[in-house]
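subagent[fold] <- orchestrator: predict structure for attached chain, return tokens only, no commentary.
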Amino acid sequence: MATLQDIGVSAGINILTAFIFFIVFAFLRLQPFNDRVYFSKWYLKGLRSSPASGGGFAGRFVNLDLRSYLKFLHWMPEALKMPERELIDHAGLDSVVYLRIYWLGLKIFAPIAMLAWAVLVPVNWTNNELELAKHLKNVTSSDIDKLTISNIPESSHRFWAHIVMAYAFTIWTCYMLMKEYETVANMRLQFVATEARRPDQFTVLVRNVPPDPDETVSELVEHFFLVNHPDNYLTHQVVYNANKLADLVSKKKKLQNWLDYYQLKYTRNNSQTRPITKLGCLGLCGQKVDAIEHYIAEVDKTSKEIAEERENVVNDQKSIMPASFVSFKTRWAAAVCAQTTQTRNPTEWLTEWAAEPRDVYWPNLAIPYVSLTVRNLVMNVAFFFLTFFFIIPIAFVQSLATVEGIEKVAPFLKFIIEDKFVKSLIQGLLAGIVLKLFLIFLPGILMTMSKFEGFTSVSSLERRSASRYYIFNLVNVFLGNVIAGAAFEQLNSFLNQSPNQIPKTIGMAIPMKATFFITYIMVDGWAGVAGEILMLKPLIIYHLKNALLVKTEKDREEAMNPGSIGFNTGEPQIQLYFLLGLVYAPVTPMLLPFILIFFALAYVVYRHQIINVYNQEYESAAAFWPDVHGRVITALIISQLLLMGLIGTKHAALAAPFLIALPVITISFHRFCKGRYEPAFIRYPLQEAMMKDTLERAREPNLNLKGYLQDAYIHPVFKGGDDDEDGDMVRKLENEVIIVPTKRQSRRNTPAPSRISGESSPSLAVINGKEV
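subagent[fold] -> orchestrator:
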């Protein structure tokens, strides 16, 4: 069990580590050859083309201006200077609202921390329950535990202080959540109303198009929308299964990188000896061949395969999926289509807002819609087993990451770990580091599961991964360590106690686990956040590519890997701290200052990264905020239920029932916010759409909207190439949308002029009047 000394040692090490990270970062960011790594956002926006040269001497590779090194923390106030409105224009609304999650944490927990330390810490400290338990019941505890609710005797009237504070914390948290929900909803509506024209504003994704023996998917989509949206339909682009083609394009890119590497190597060495490669596994064994000739041949071979596959995709009707991107003449028409049911059969002609083109996850558009339910079920079952079986190795390794666990497994190390400093190091750092290492591969696993489920946009993939990551943290990181860890530590007393005494032991042990979470916050939230600013992985990758592959400025730009805010990993981390703060605020207030430091440090670091480094992959206009709000509400309810159970184990029968109203109040508050603010995040108001359309028609009466939207949703493998073949393929796909040979014999379902034949279909009145 970690003591105050252990916490002090851990805090000192993590603060020193964070400080070292900041010093190293300050040195690296000043070097001109790192400029594209630490200011990549400005290069990608075209606002920076070379390292800034201030006063003093700046060489080509090393900054020789010694005065610039004296301001190694100058980036912190600089990160706070950019106004929020300017930051939205610079980085987008998603990034700004993501920062507001950290700011929300500060606004919630700063007053809670002051109130808890002013009221609850004196109430907890001025008791001797743990001292009596230590002598009479052989219960171990530390000085930190005297600040917790465990130090209050059973049936004490002092529990009323915790109940009153629980109400105060709930009311304040709900108030801040409501104000923030209102602010973000207004920011979203303002952003949508003022943002520039984008293809997704006019486009919906139509899925589960029913098969028709007389028409292709393209013909069927065109006829359906000409009939049901005759005044508003503009154009469409069918969805192709081009996954194999995308794999070939990716393969060619890798081969081209190897070819560039060997050509540069040969050119720079100025030798007559041509580079050699082996054809075996990973180039380590097998026949030796001329590397340049080998990769030239492989690139040519792959190029031919790509050309053949392109033709197959375009000409084979089986490659066309029963889905299409349908564009309309106005935003109002797109909103009506996206937010209404198209037919009496609710399983056909399913419409939803199309993601913006850079947000579309193209591989999943090739997944048949009917298989999505099965995939979702399979992944839910897989996630269930991943979550609940993962708790076994976590609990086991966590038990070993203690002084007692190490002595039990390796008794020969006892004389080393009994040293005061080493013991403090183990108890203050090891458990948090082990847990952090265990979670390294989890985001990748969860993202793979989300991709298998079939989500069609990167933003929805990240939101689903974030949701599962949050559940995993709740079960394994929080409940696993509180319940399983506490049970393991109290195993001997469990075996000697009667069943009715076990809940008491757990009730006393839960607040004692706060010391573990304090160490975890310092490892993950202090040193971990400070390490984020170093950008070590992008830095190494950039310099490797720059040395081995870069030939042109375009290559150098592609070598930059600025990354993004990483909503699927960052937001669950934030929510874990919300959970810990709300749970331990009435139980162990000592944890709150550590959480406040995390929120403040993370806000500054990520604001700097968003301004200078991150290049967001998509813009969803803060569509994720309802998830953020819901998870904070979940954390609040969990904290109330745990406090209710904890006080129940203390035999405070008169006080505990007064906590029952808290979850009811919180759930009612959530329902109010859901009805009042959530529609702004899931529906586009028709009034707003009409206003934006009217303004655009007044400003640009001659806008060629069809030309703007024509190739917006063509698969990336069909466009963006460097050769004429790619351009020809795009034109062929565009023409396929415009001129489609009709095979339908009857037009009973198409009483509208056909753009294909140019002839008018008989109207319903003519048909009813038998004038056919």
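orchestrator: received. Logging for downstream: The chain has 33 helices and six strands. The radius of gyration is 31 Å.
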